[in-house]
Amino acid sequence: MSVLDDKERRIVGFLCNWCSYGGADTAGTARANQPTDLRIIRVPCSGRVNPLFILKALMNGADGVLVSGCHPRDCHYALGNFYARRRLETLKEFLPIIGINPERFHYTWVSASEGQRWQEVVTKFTDHIHKLGAAPKWSEVPALKDVKFDLVDAIRPLGCGTHPALAELKAEIKKALPDLHGVLGWRKGYDAIHAEPFLMQTEAEVDELIWGPFNVQNLANFLPKHAGKKIGVVVKGCDSKNVVELLVEKLIKREDVTIFGIGCNGTVDYKRILAKLPEDAVIESVVGGGSGVKVTASGKEYDMPMAEIAQDKCRLCVKPNAVISDVFLGKPTIEPECEDGRLPALRFLDTLTLEERMGFWKGQMEHCIRCYACRSACPQCVCRDFCVSDSRDPEWLTQEDSVEQKMFFQLIHAQHLAGRCTGCAECERACPMDIPVFALKQQFGRMIKKIFGYSAGLDLESMPPLLGYELEEANIKERDL
Amino acid sequence: MRIGIFVCHCGSNIEATVNTAAVAKKSLEYPDVVFATDTMYTCSEPGQDSIVEAIKEHQLDGVVVASCSPRMHEATFRRTVQRAGINPYMFEMANIREHVSWIGKDKDANTNKSAELVLLASEKLRNNRPLFPQQFDVTKRVLVIGGGVAGIQAALDCADGGIDVVMVEKTATIGGKMAKLDKTFPTIDCSSCVLSPKTVDVSQNEKITLHAYSEIESISGFVGNFTVKIRKKSTYVDWTLCTGCGSCIEKCPSKKNPDAFNEGIGTTTAINIPYPQAIPKKATIYADVCRKLRDGKCGVCAKVCPTGAIKYDMVDEIIEEQVGAVITATGYDQMDWTQLGEYGAGKLPDVVTGLQYERLLSASGPTEGHIKRPSDGLEPKSVVFIQCVGSRDKSIGRPYCSGFCCMYTAKQAILTKDHVPESQSYVFYMDIRAPGKMYDEFTRRAMEEYGTEYIRGRVSTIQPHIRPDGVVGYMVRGADTLLGQPVEIDADLVVLAVGVEGAQGAAQLAEKLRISYDQYGFFMESHPKLKPVETNTAGVYLAGVCQGVKDIPTSVSQGSAAAAKVMALFSKPKLQSDPQIAFVDIKRCIGCGKCITVCPYQAIKEVSFRGAPKAEVVGTVCQGCGLCNATCPQGAIQVAHFTDNQLLAEVNALCQF
Amino acid sequence: MSTFFATPSALLGWLKSVSSDNRVVAPKKKGSVVLFKPWTTEELGACQDASELLIRSTMSAKEVVFPKCETLYELKATKDPSDLSKLHQELIVPNNATATVLFGARPCDARGFLCLDMPYLQGPVVDPYYKAHRDALVIVTQACSNALPTCFCNWIGSNPADEKGSDIIFTPIEGGFVLSALTEKGTALLAKGGFDAADDAKNTAVSEAQAKAKSQLPAESTLKDIPQKVYARFNDEAFWNKEIEKCLSCGACTFLCPTCQCFTMTDKGNQLDGKRMRSWDGCMASHFTLEASGHNPRPSRGMRYRNRLGHKFSYGRKDGDFSCVGCGRCIRSCPAHLDIRTVLSNACEGAQKKGEE
Question: Which of B67, B78, B196, B468 is most buried, taking the most CB atoms under 10 A from its CB?
């Protein structure tokens, strides 16, 4: 069905049964004249409104979405709207990055007695949506092609020598091994630049352990797979944040996991190494030292400074040392005194207009093959084998090979990670199509930081902000329409 | 499915601005719709009968009624479809009256919108499943929290109805605020004389177990099956031995302690019985002022106690009670008026609160019923009453009226004249609120028969000054807004009608009870008009001022009302739970516990299923808010009737471009 | 066999003319990845450098016959006005196939189509959708003149100039390309180019280029009795779990693979307006084998990978060929850097040891 052409805009409202739906009834009983655009979906509580419903409506072409619940402290269910306030505010701050004007989404509080206020809310919001006009459609926005990101300068010196503490680390792991099911680490993979995760269970295997710029995989990902067993894990700073977050969310137990850390000097983006070599070059050896590596491939030597080959996240890393560890060896890496930086994709997106951003994601999502490696590589993806992408129940997604469906999966992933993502960017590294999907999570991350002053994975005692609430939110102010 | 659509004219309420026939015709195009019609009054008996007939004739298994708000008639139509053999949850309503016909005059737009709302409802209905309530047993005992007059009334009524009552009172005696009052308006009855038969009844009623000097530690469970942990605070006196003889009180050397029962006017001993008619009439030692307990040196009371009841090593005890319902009657406290500088910020000794003045008037009070001002014992000749202290004042965030101050001020002005015939009372007021039976007459008596001078206006300052005779006076300055001129009165005593708020600790109790409360500490009733005694937590009821300001008769009525609610609840052999609650798909649940974290009712617990943690909903505790549903990433926990797929169907019906 | 020589511009010209009545699908660079995508006549006309179409693709070319998501049919219905519960239904089977020239596939890609043919064309039921795509397809294969470190087509009995599965094969040499048609379809298409026959020198250059590529491949596999040995591992769960410890079970390998052929079918819509879709699925996804009861016969990563390796090298094969073409995409794009060659070797060598005991 459609709205009356040129008369109405498609506006969807989610109203809690007890206050706002009642407020709308009160307005009706008082014959308070209102625009006809709004279509109301009744929900038990504003806390029932999964932000994904709002995203779904907006992705499916709604011109505006309005959520209204009981006033804070007046919730029929005591707390529902406190949670809703945090989630909805975070969503509103998130929207611009996917090219949706955040003014198309408004949330507010209207009690059952506030018929007049409801009339004002509907009238003002509808007027505002009419001023904004029809929402741009994904099918109509031109896809942004040939996007190139600038390389970001590293905020700290990156190195790649053999770590002096590696021998000591191996000794410590051997010492701990008898009490453990195994210890997760990295060893040389099918060539010198491709390290692979492995589980050390014998001393001989411990001798295979490597530490250095090729240890790209986040081993925290494997910990929940071993839940219930005593397990050790070697971590970089970034991996350790996921260990913390897994502990915070009680997905693993502290007493089950032994954490080994060494200060990290950055890891490589091996695609950047390969790009510097002829495609058929066979890598024979890699020697690291100082600020770069010397790659020998098909008999030729190539000097590659870390400044050119390091992963983007490592260039901006402010937590190179394990934030949690049982055994920490060697000197900690010097930690830069600054905030988490934006990865290139987010920097680039920040320079675009809303419509360009939509075009950007459209262009990117056209390549998505829906392998969901992004999800599988994510250490915080708790649903694992039960992901809605595959189960399609609840039917958030269809199997249609469309930009909207593929983008919506990314929105589900990002929304599930809001306040939980530690910024390891494994989703992006795992993507065989090189789609910068981490930008969506980083957008949520920086908005969570802005609103709640919170970064995931730093504090065992913390509570992910979207699973909590405050009676008075310091940084959430009710907006006027 | 076979869906039937009924579009109501509601007389002309809908029909005037919506083409209902067109809506019905349009809805025939929707998936699974096999019947659609427009009817005059769907909720009328013939209207309902026509639904039943249509269900039978067209073998409908789902019904949409497009009419008024579901808040109005959802329950009606659910019964209707049930009558025809359809599960009541295979029914949806489209609100085309309050949300369409009454708010816009554009008939085309309204008709189009109505047709869409019908689509929305029918798309949701296509995703509905039959739901069935669960049945469970009830523990027929009630917990009454608070032993003021409302709680007492509720407890006595329940006990009369044959229900066991557990009463928990925070202080050492029941009676509440009413026990502190000298007289009551508008009859000038002796307050304690009216009350004490009831308090004695409580103590003597076999059905009532009283836990005085006790507080609620925790409440778990659900309607019909609450488990209450009660902290019996240590009194240092074995009440089973104490006879209330008072020997200990006479001999206690720590005598200069503020007297809480007397609202801080006068002093009392470290071991005391709050007032002569206290129930239970047992002594309590207050550890913070007892020399033995504080410094270890004394022990006089133990020596003089004839029954050896004094136990200095007594500790708090936690006891557990099983109840099926809870009545909260926790009353009120006065707002902190000392933050208000214009009334001397609590620093002027002869500026007292209304409750303190009651104690000065009371024969059982510190002055034995002689009005003596606290500073020098002078009998006041000029008394100024100030109304709305911390009430009806948006500038200090206290917008509401405290309800009973106008009346008790009039009463106190009358009593002042009775006690001190040569005195003159002045009342600064904003408006006089006297809507009760005989109330307005009463305030007029204060003015007309007792010569109380009413001045409409607020007071700006109270300045102490020394009069020529060396006596301290209080210059009360304000404005008479009717005459539009400043007023200045030299008072001997100033009485403040301090605004009330929910009792201290109300918020914490509300959280234990999982009921809502407002920013002033008043508990939220389930519906302001139609469910003023119920809360949103099934089995928890409200009585008295804890729900909102009210006077004694209204509090008593509400106490009885709450008791009636409990008796109605307990009159059923088994209770039924609302099936619109959360349920867990155990296959999909990964046991991450996020739902448990956010549930406002602790209605979800972790269970182990084949060694894996899983969430499990306690159906009778769950209220169906759906917070868990919005939190669970994989959608393993869904709230029945508002599942993700049901809401998605609605979103998709509206937005599918 | 007759061979023809084309200069880069002649080759582009040929493709451009072909594109007038065919969809030309060829490698196309999209940022840092390369995909098989349609080239329009205009794009081909504007292309100055034929090497743009000769790059190796990150994705396999299977989409031309096995789209990521394909509508199998649409259902439209109207209600009978006399009895609204009666429907007049119409089944619309879309014709998704268009005449397609796949240009720049590698021998491994071309061979991949033969693997896809097995379930879709050679089973008890011929899949009409696949067949339509397949019949409309002409495969123009580029023989490899080099090999990536991850290539291992020689392990599965193929080589950089393998003609199996192609309609035309061409080899880049100095100054241009030597083309030869391998099938009737190929002959007809090549004829449109009007190319000159290649001389001996050019044919020699072809041999040299192919020899060079061959030399870059890893050592020939010494593994024997692979199907039997992989199968013998079937119940060795400890082996699979250990081997697959690093695997994320993400399934990028199956989606990039030229021979992975599994799909899922889903319905969308309602009684009046619905459609059935077939879309890619893969054995690395847990849901792939999830049964309605909730039971999952392949609950672990190890069990899932066992199926992937088993299906490629042990079962579901024909004529002794493996269902792996050795393209190495699964190795290159694996976020865990899992190497299928290592798993295969370990599976076989371990099995051998077991046999010896």
Answer: B67
